[in-house]
Amino acid sequence: MILGKVVGTVVATRKDERLVGSKLLLVQPCLPDGEPGGLPLVAVDTVDAGVSETVLVVSGSSARMATGLADDPVDAAIVGIVDTVNIE
C-alpha cells in the first residue's frame, strides 16, 4: 500500500471504454509524517476521495481487485481515505 495525498484531478476525454465514468486523481506519495516521498501517480478513485485528502493507494494486481475493477486496465487505485496517522 502507498500512503499519499490527493493533489489534483486528471481529465481524459479519450480513454479505454472500461474506464468511462471512473474518476482519476493525481496522488503524491508521502511519508507517514506527511512529507512527499516519491513521484506523483494517477489512480482510479474507488472511495470518492477529494483534493487534499490523505489516501491509501494499491498498485499492480491489487488495484484490479478493488471493487468493480476486476477486468479494467488499472495499475493504481485509491481504496481508503486516511483519518489519522500515528507515529510512535
**Cα Rg:** 13 Å
| CATH architecture call | Beta Barrel
The side-by-side strand order for the widest beta sheet comes to: 1-2-3-5-4
Secondary-structure element string: EEEEHE
Poorly predicted tracts of residues: none
| Structural domain tally | 1
Roughly what percent helix?
under 10%
Biggest sheet record? 5 strands, mixed, barrel
Quaternary structure of the protein: single chain
* Fourth-tier CATH superfamily name: EutN/Ccml
Calculate the mean pLDDT score and round it.
93
CATH topology: OB fold (Dihydrolipoamide Acetyltransferase, E2P)
DSSP, total strands: 5
Indicate the CATH class: Mainly Beta
Q: Which term fits the overall shape?
A: globular
Blueprint of the fold:
Layout: E1 2-10, E2 24-29, E3 41-45, E4 54-59, H1 61-64, E5 76-81
Outline:
The chain is mostly beta strands.
Tell me what you see in this structure.
The chain is mainly beta. It has a single domain (2-81), classed as EutN/Ccml (OB fold (Dihydrolipoamide Acetyltransferase, E2P)). It is 5% helix and 36% strand. The protein contains 1 helix and 5 strands; from the N terminus they run ββββαβ. It has one helix at residues 61-64, and strands at residues 2-10, 24-29, 41-45, 54-59, 76-81. The chain has a 5-stranded mixed barrel. The two termini are 20 Å apart. The model has no long low-confidence stretch (mean pLDDT 93).
